[in-house]
Amino acid sequence: MVVKSEDGRELRSFRFKDEDESQEVRAVERRILLETLANQLPTEAVHFSSGLEKIETSENGETLLKLKDGNQLLAKIVIGCDGIRSPVAKWMGFSEPKYVGHCAFRGLGVYSNGHPFEPRVNYVYGRGLRAGYVPVSPTKVYWFICFNSPSPGPKITNPSELRKQAKELIRNWPSELLNLIDLSPDETVSKTPLVDRWLWPAISPSASTGRIVLVGDAWHPMTPNLGQGACCALEDSVVLARKLANAINSEPASIEDAFRSYGSERWPRIFPLTIRANLVGSLLQWEDPIVCSVRNNIIIPKLVRLGPIMEHTNFDCESLMKTNF
Questions:
Q1: Which part of the chain is the FAD-binding domain (predicted)?
Q2: Coil, helix or strand at residue 67
Q3: Which domains does the chain have, with CATH numbers?
Q4: In the prediction, which pLDDT does 309 show?
């Protein structure tokens, strides 16, 4: 990992194995991860582009899902993993995720003949502005630019306009960032407001209602400052699968009990991470020049230690082979 200032000056260079042998970072393209998981399912198990329009519960406890394409599904169990703006979460009484004051441009630079970067995470810190990039394959490099904004602003989908705005933010920054933006295909470039939802004890709804349960961003949207959003969704899935398997194979445990147990087990992990991600983002988005100088010349070079920073990634999901249906 390398941390630089906006003028290209190196502030700190970390080697994970030198700092903490238990730590490592693996960057994976989201599309590849989803395709890999989907390919393990039976053919026709996944139906895409079927937005949820309405949820109804029958007297016998089954759930009727009415889709936007006119189809209907009658389900004994519903696992809502439908993202930040989850209709399932809204139906269960969860509030809309809250905007945290930052937006992010993201993209995927493509080098058809191979990129020139070493396998490391690169961060660049400015005033109220930061960026980063990391290779995800021999030919692709993920990048982001995070900037302060009092409001999310209008939704923009034109890739040319998105590139223009992103490049304007970092026009005097290291050239490799500008090159990455130019090399990003239209479909990979986006701008999104950063949001989260804090699951306050005794105030927020439970993760489940009857035989309906939430997973991932649908339940606990968090800012990407710790890189744990998708990771926590995978953790949720492992824990929930194990709870369901035990309920199915070990009567008299019920599905409802399994869902409640899942929520109780995951909440102590999720709630602190959501708050920590929010606070880290606020600190990294400092604008005051004196505070930024202290960060660049004292905190990052002399005080930051990789082990404590990455300790939140130390999650043991146990053996996946224990989960059998």
A1: 38-269
A2: strand
A3: 77-97+197-285 (3.50.50.60), 101-195 (3.30.9.30)
A4: 75
